[in-house]
Specification:
Layout lengths: L2 E5 L7 H14 L3 E4 L17 H10 L5 E8 L5 H14 L4 E6 L6 H4 L7 H20 L3 E4 L4 E5 L12 E4 L6 H8 L2 E5 L3 H18 L7 E10 L3 H12 L12 E5 L1 H14 L1 E7 L6 H20 L13
Parallel strand pairs: 1-2, 1-11, 2-3, 3-4, 4-7, 7-8, 8-9, 9-10, 9-11
Antiparallel strand pairs: 5-6
Helix pairs in contact: 2-3, 3-5, 6-7, 9-10
């Protein structure tokens, strides 16, 4: 089943702002809403607002009913994987079995310098990620876990209560072809990346499939997920006006611009996303950092998602609903 979600982040000045967005996403029929696990994300500036990810996710999960509650993603640099596993199990109980927990090797964050936190070199963080995935899955599924690795050691470790879900979905974020995709092949239920051009995505998918074959895993067991941003308008003139407004909010040379897949109408957005549907992407996560673009959020739910559902189902007939939920 194809799913559509909102990646909301948590750079809000107060809890009510974020809760309102999550509630609206659920009312519009989105399947998923997610936070990240940065502490001081660079895009917020050195003193911008940012709630703690797992704490906020617990509060939002308790106030929603249906949507999948995602963490996209938690860096292995923040906490020991046994603590992360315990947090995830708790979140799964709070949400009634709606959690999808993402992990990654970690990237730029102002907290490392501001708080004096260690930031290991890339190779070490990738090793930590692979070990962390093994430890978390073990704690979620086995009575006792022993692990003797380079970065982590567990002796007779247990975790109770286990997650509500028999297999809590583990999301791995990143697209590094030498190391990250190997870890995806070994451990992930869901593979998430930021949007790239179609040919780059096709190459990364092929690399992932090769790693899966090497270890005897069916690549079809891994759900492909993509996070992107768009600005939509009712017509081209409105879309162009809204593009100017949105880009004016970004500092000159902002890397944020690269996350935008298209600026235009719903029809143009469908055309831009269809190649990824054909490549097998089944989770499309719309990035909506504050100030939240509610016009795009509504147009995507009401006009883009139904067309992509039809495409994924291989039919030109009318969509079963005119909103996101299928």
């Amino acid at each position: 089943m194809i799913r559509f979600g909102v990646h909301s982040g948590q750079q809000y000045a107060n809890f009510d702002e974020c809760l309102e967005l999550w509630t609206q996403a659920e009312d519009l029929g989105y399947d998923w809403v997610s936070l990240f696990d940065h502490q001081r994300p660079p895009l917020g500036g050195p003193d911008g607002p940012c709630f703690d990810g797992p704490t906020l996710l617990a509060a939002l999960a308790a106030r929603t009913r249906r949507i999948r509650c995602g963490m996209l993603v938690s860096a292995v640099t923040w906490r020991h994987p046994a603590l992360a596993a315990s947090i995830a199990a708790t979140l799964d109980h709070v949400s009634g079995g709606r959690l999808e927990f993402g992990v990654g090797a970690g990237g730029a964050d102002l907290a490392y310098e501001q708080y004096g936190l260690p930031f290991p070199r890339t190779g070490d963080r990738l090793d930590m990620l692979d070990e962390a995935c093994e430890i978390m899955r073990g704690l979620w599924t086995r009575e006792r876990v022993d692990h003797k690795g380079r970065h982590y050691q567990l002796v007779g470790a247990c975790l109770e209560p286990k997650p509500v879900q028999e297999r809590l979905p583990l999301v791995i974020g990143g697209g590094g072809e030498k190391r990250t995709l190997r870890t995806v092949a070994r451990h992930a239920d869901v593979w998430n990346t930021l949007v790239t051009d179609v040919e780059t995505y096709r190459r990364k998918k092929t690399v992932l499939e090769t790693y899966c074959r090497e270890i005897g895993r069916d690549p079809g067991e891994i759900r492909m997920s993509m996070t992107f941003r768009v600005v939509l308008g009712a017509d081209e003139a409105r879309a162009e006006e809204r593009k100017r407004e949105r880009l004016a909010l970004l500092p000159a040379g902002s890397p944020d611009v690269g996350e935008y897949l298209t600026f235009g109408t719903a029809e143009r957005c469908v055309e831009a996303l269809l190649p990824y549907v054909r490549l097998g992407v089944r989770d499309f996560l719309l990035g909506l950092r504050p100030p939240v673009d509610r016009e795009t959020m509504r147009i995507f739910a009401e006009q883009v998602a139904p067309e992509l559902r039809r495409a994924a189902a291989g039919t030109d007939g009318p969509a079963p609903e005119d909103r996101v939920r299928g």
